[in-house]
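To close the section, here is one more complete example, presented without commentary so you can practise reading it yourself. The ligand is protoporphyrin IX containing FE.
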Amino acid sequence: MLPAFYTSCSELVSKWDTVITAEEGSCELDVWPELQNLTGDVISRTAFGSSFEEGRRIFQLQTEQAELAIQAIQSVYIPGSRFLPTKRNTRMKEIDKEVRVLLTDIIHKREQATKVGESTNGDLLGQETTSTLLVWTMVVLSMHPEWQVLAREEVLQIFEHRAPDFDELTHLKIVPMILFEVLRLYPPLVLLTRRTDKEMKLGKIILPAERFRKGVSNATKNQVSFFPFGWGPRICIGQNFAMVEAKMALTMILQHFSFELSPTYAHAPWTVITIQPQYGAQIILLSVILWAVKVLYIIWWTPKKLERALRKQGIEGPPFKLFFGNIKENFGMAKEARSKPMNLSHNIAPRILPFALQTVEKYGKLSVIWYGAVPRVTIMEPDLIRDVLSNKFGHFPKVKPIPLVRFIATGLANYEGEQWAKHRRILNPAFNQEKLKRMLPAFYTSCSKLVSKWDTLITAKEGSCELDIWPELQNLTGDAISRTAFGSSFEEGRRIFQLQTEQAELAIQAIQSVYIPGYRFLPTKRNIKMKETVKEIQALVTDIVYKREHAIKAGEASNGDILGLMMESNFKEIKENNGSKKLGMSLHEIIEECKLFYFVGQETTSTLLVWTMVVLSMHPEWQVLAREEVLQIVGRRAPEFDELTHLKIVPMILYEVLRLYPPIVSITRRTYKEMKLGKIILPAGVQVALPTLLIHHDREIWGEDVDEFNPERFRNGVSMATKNQVSFLPFGWGPRICLGQNFAMVEAKMALTMILQHFSFELSPTYAHAPFTVVTIQPQHGAQIILRKL
Ligand code: HEM
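Output:
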């Protein structure tokens, strides 16, 4: 029968090959009907020696019959009901008749003395069960690419690209192990039923823990606990037939294609006699040869071509290396740098971006480093930065975050084009001055809680106490964003907050490894944890948003919090567009924005505050000046919005801290087509890095005192300090400038004002200066400060 198997599999492979070639190397396909056709073709050839085309009608009829039978099984069983002339029963009888006629015809024609009943049985079971085994094998191997690679290695080692012969098929080890495991997880027949004619004793059945490396009997310890083909005298007669067919088909598929799940695939096993994929099995197929060529093209040829194009224009950097580019040196140097604290200086770039700094020093401010196979061109020239960030025609989009990072939040920061414009339009009003004013009581409450906590601690310790203020300030900004965004207390949002921090750490680990497409589907510890965390965050935020939706529907006012304002603005947008929900944000999108605010709102502002307190401890003269100003303008009262806008020294200090310790160290964009930038031409497929930290520490831009803390430079505002150049980017620049910039500045002013009103502070001798990055610049060993009550 092997030649018949081979012919059917060859037809499938050449059909898929043709589709792939037409679509240039890869295509998306629902493999479920394809595999049903394959197994139908096989059984047709082996049972009748005819082609699948001749048997097509039989298969169509049998599929219809199976569906009707399932309907019948799913309804209550009434003895004798099959004799009633219902529509279903009539159709079933018609089908039965037609199948018999067709089969008899085939049998007569070929003069085969086969019993008609047995043939039809074999026909249906042979086709259905083997096709489900094959479809789940392809789905499972897409979910577990490491096993797909192992199986392909085995197949290519044994058969290379030849047609498999019978003996060689029996030499396969990994392939049958996989098939058995798929049969264990997705047994085509979910239930075997028998009846008892008399009382029967049944022993215990224990499921095996071991798997199939040493065969089925070893895996099951000789127990009857693995019976995809049934067991005993009535064990499936076609067991070996099915296994040989499955081995042949899988071998030939693995020889020719690599495959992965399409994003459109929905995992929904259900039963229509056998376990089948309810919505099909959408798989992306890649030709193995084309795939290898494509991989080579992506990982070697393209980067080398880009390297030449950049070098021709004088853009140099460390040489491109296969697979990792410069990632290893980059992270190696970062690891080394963060292995010890630094002296008390603001020259932090060598500790935070050692590799980027070294590259700029060696190859110039317009240079390139390799992020895997992608070149990242560093740009530090203010005019070029302006061109990139003004993004006039949307030609410098953001770098797409890798899928794992998208787990943290998508939202505005990750959108492009019309979707970005729509969201920005809806969200802008929630952050204007008027709305910020209404948020002041929330900021005040959060800061008051912090102040009274510190007050209590100091009183207990008689006048002063040492404290790691880093977690304290993270709590403060978490509380503030929780109140301002959700109108709820920090306590309610605490879990979201913890989870998002955890998620950021996992994401950073993911970014630091090379991106392997499909890797996120592997059930690694990190991936499982990330998925669980996402689920939990999603549930918590959804709960808050739903509660609010109910409150709004019940006529409650929006409270002036961001969620309420966002929903109001969204409602307005929908109304202005004649109620078209398409033009507003969906509930899912609102939830994503909440997650984003929570993340960016807390992370960034807490780092601004922690470095401000560290720096003011290192420069007590500025602490005194700032306190004098606060006491003069606000006194010891609760700060009012107008008073905060009259402060001068405090914002000068905050700007200088943002210059020296920008929470976000680098802004990245990419080119999707060739772009002219000043005198250079950037080819498509290049990333552009604007290293905020290095730009803020550039002597040529800021002068000889670049690494000194000198808030004076901001006395006449940012434009004077930068001489109207785009060289101060803590909040980015251009149309995508930080949405929460004013929010963050009001919050920081409020917090600093209230801290200065109540306490003086200095560095503890236990403090070790060690700025490092976990998304933002943070104090690696905490920020131990001695607080005194004033
Ligand atoms: C000190 C505090 C903050 C800093 C330093 C900061 C920094 C930044 C930077 C550099 C960008 C631009 C990134 C790019 O162009 O690739 C950005 C964007 C953004 N920030 Fe902030 N941020 C801060 C606080 C906040 C707060 C409190 C919120 C919200 C409550 C917020 C919401 C956003 C959003 C939504 C975007 C994306 C804007 C867009 O793409 O249109 N940020 N932020």
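Once you have examined the tokens, check your reading against these statements. The pocket of protoporphyrin IX containing FE is lined by residues 398, 412-413, 424, 596-597, 600-601, 604-605, 608, 663-664, 667, 730-732, 736, 738-740, 743-744 (CB under 6 Å). Confidence is low (pLDDT under 50) at residues 113-125, 191-210.
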